[in-house]
Amino acid sequence: MKISITGGAGFIGSHLSRKLVEENHEIICIDDLSTGRKENIKDLLSKPNFKFIEHDITEPLIVEEKIDQIYNLACPASPPRYQKDPIQTAKTSVIGSINLLELARKNEARILQASTSEVYGDPQVHPQPENYWGNVNPIGIRACYDEGKRCAETLFFDYQRTHGLEIRVVRIFNTYGPLMDPDDGRVVSNFIVQALRNEDMTVYGNGSQTRSFQYIDDLIEGLILMMNNEKEFTGPVNMGNPDGFTIVELAEKILALIPESKSKIVYKTLPQDDPKQRKPDIALVKEKLNWEPKIKLSDGLKKTLEYFRKVI
Question: How many Å from the N-terminal Cα to the C-terminal Cα in the chain?
Answer without folding.
Answer: 37
